[in-house]
Write a structure and sequence with these properties.
Distance between the termini: 50 Å
Largest sheet: 6 strands, mixed
GO molecular function, one term: oxidoreductase activity
Oligomer: single chain
CATH topology of the largest domain: Immunoglobulin-like
Strand order of the largest sheet: 7-6-12-17-14-15
Family: Belongs to the multicopper oxidase family.
CATH class of the largest domain: Mainly Beta
Strand content: 25-35%
Protein name: L-ascorbate oxidase
Length: 309
């Protein structure tokens, strides 16, 4: 499989015989049918799970002489280093889709000064006798009014900015409608830390970001020495391996109330998510459009009139 694209980014065309695809991710590969005429097996298996679930498809040549000789492809490994090395080998193709060596032009993600570092640690917890999941010890609960609507109409009592910290406390988890405040045009470093024994997958609404580093163990400031600040892939969803960390760079160039969440539906539903409020005092339509006139309002905003465009 020759990898050519990852979530909208052209990649270096590296060939893989096995490829990790995590929750919420997409890949485009090219397959050259240049082998002898047989039926070949394509195997998909879960990785890093106690129970391995596999499914097999058949790549059938028109002149097939039957099943291809030899055993089926081997099952998935549980070697985190193998997967980390593969993930780090996926790099942006800087010569694709442009006539110049650097299609980023004068903007390069690795040269922009970082204005803020946010560390996010996932955890499992029991709260009030029930299974919950948390980010920086906060397990998200949905309010009675959509957060963006409450923010737009300045409705108090729905949420408070700053109800989730920039760094993990590693204390006991608790329930909260968690909202983190951020300034429009900031350039942030976000480090996802996973101390659990299962792979995590994270998505940030409204943004693409550059994956600059990932490794096993605990993240520290010294970890930045191994960052890829030249040709990291721009993504929307990123994996964090067991007892490992993943770091991203992201420009906050999109005003709004954006969901940061686990792509595991069970974890997301049970609290492993929060909202990032990217705010500016400007009321210019250049930065953000108002709520449409025909928006359906609910909760504490029911009965209010939308503001004219």
């Amino acid at each position: 499989m020759k990898l050519v694209e990852v979530e909208g980014s052209h990649t270096m065309q590296t060939t893989y015989s096995s490829l990790d695809v995590h929750l919420g991710q997409s890949y485009s590969v090219l397959l050259t049918a240049d082998q002898p005429g047989f039926d070949y097996a394509v195997v998909v298996s879960t990785r890093f799970t106690t129970r391995i679930i596999s499914s097999t498809a058949v790549l059938h040549y028109a002149n097939s002489a039957g099943k291809a000789p030899g055993p089926l492809p081997g099952g998935p490994t549980i070697q985190i280093d193998w997967s980390l090395n593969q993930a780090r080998s996926i790099r942006w193709n800087l010569t694709a889709s442009g006539p110049r060596p650097n299609p980023q032009g004068s903007y390069h993600y690795g040269l922009v000064p970082v204005t803020r570092t946010i560390r996010l640690a996932n955890s499992a917890a029991t709260i009030n006798g029930k299974q919950r999941y948390a980010v920086n010890s906060v397990s998200y609960v949905s309010p009675d009014t959509p957060l963006k609507v409450a923010d737009y109409y300045k409705i108090g009592g729905v949420f408070s900015v700053g109800t989730i910290a920039d760094n993990p406390s590693y204390g006991g988890a608790y329930l909260q409608t968690s909202v983190m405040g951020a300034n429009y045009r900031d350039y942030v470093e976000i480090v996802f830390e996973n101390s659990e024994d299962e792979v995590q997958s994270w998505h940030i609404d409204g943004y693409a970001f550059w994956v600059v580093g990932m490794d096993g163990g605990k993240w520290s400031a010294a970890s930045r020495q191994g960052y890829n600040l030249r040709d990291g892939v721009s993504r929307y969803t990123v994996q964090v391996y067991p007892r490992s960390w993943t770091a991203i760079y992201m420009p906050l160039d999109n005003v709004g109330m954006w969901n940061v969440r686990s792509e595991s539906w069970a974890r997301q539903y049970l609290g492993q998510q929060f909202y990032l409020r990217v705010w500016t005092p400007s009321t210019s339509l250049r930065d953000e459009f108002p709520i449409p006139k025909n928006a359906l309002l609910c909760g504490r905003a029911a009965g209010r009139r939308t503001r004219p465009l």
